[in-house]
Specification:
With 182 residues, the protein is mostly helical. It has one domain: Up-down Bundle (Fumarate Reductase Cytochrome B subunit). Helices cover 70% and strands 4% of the residues. It has 5 helices and 2 strands, in the order H-H-H-E-E-H-H. Strand 1 and strand 2 form a beta hairpin. Helix 2 packs across helix 3 and helix 3 packs antiparallel against helix 4. The longest helix is centred in the last third of the chain and has 36 residues. Bound molecules: protoporphyrin IX containing FE (HEM).
Length: 182
């Protein structure tokens, strides 16, 4: 079995978008030059696009359950897969919401384009802004680390165990592997 086509398209599209977002975010806070405003103008709409795609993805996941993991996968790895996948969903939804809430609490307008302003989702409050700003940075590191672990696990399945798990997300059917049978 392989992942449903919408699940695969969303997975690879969001992988590119989220990696770009992490680098845009880090680049943005590392500069006070003119490009800061330019990077922030990319960061906000892209972050909100990720939020919308994450909701769609959650709906796709509930509608099309993923192929089962190989039956011989050790229980600890099975638990790690489950927890890390739900952590990724939680962070994909929390990061944009925290960014939006943080700007609202700071009293900054959340502009998607020069004439498209989103409503504030929190009242102005300097303490809330400070907490949310710190949380946005800390969760970004957690997201980075979870993505690295996820990448490591994908390579372990694809290159060492060769059990069809990576093929299922690449859309390749591998004969003779638990996930590779259509
Ligand atoms: C998946 C979505 C998102 C990711 C992965 C992400 C990632 C990041 C990262 C890595 C940073 C730098 C953190 C640091 O080192 O302190 C950052 C900063 C920031 N993000 Fe996001 N972000 C996301 C969504 C959003 C959204 C939706 C908004 C606003 C609507 C937003 C607004 C900001 C702002 C204002 C900063 C700080 C800029 C500064 O201090 O110069 N982010 N983000």
């Amino acid at each position: 079995m392989i992942f449903a086509l919408p699940a695969r398209v969303l997975h690879w599209t969001m992988a590119v978008l989220i990696l770009a977002m992490l680098f845009v975010g880090v680049g943005m806070v590392a500069t006070v030059a003119e490009r800061h405003a330019w990077l922030l103008a990319i960061h906000k709409p892209l972050g909100l696009a990720i939020f919308v795609l994450a909701i769609v993805r959650l709906a796709v996941r509930l509608r099309h359950p993923p192929p089962p993991l190989p039956p011989d996968l050790p229980p600890l790895q099975r638990i790690a897969a489950l927890l890390s996948h739900w952590l990724l969903y939680a962070l994909m939804i929390a990061m944009p919401l925290i960014g939006w809430a943080m700007l609202s609490a700071g009293g900054y307008p959340v502009m998607l384009a020069s004439d498209l302003r989103l409503p504030a989702i929190l009242p102005e409050n300097a303490t809330a802004f400070a907490w949310l700003r710190a949380a946005h940075g800390a969760f970004a590191y957690l997201l980075f680390l979870t993505i690295l672990a996820h990448l490591g696990a994908a390579l372990y399945h694809g290159l060492i165990r060769r059990d069809g798990v990576l093929d299922a997300m690449l859309g390749r059917v591998r004969r003779g592997s638990p996930r590779g049978e259509e």
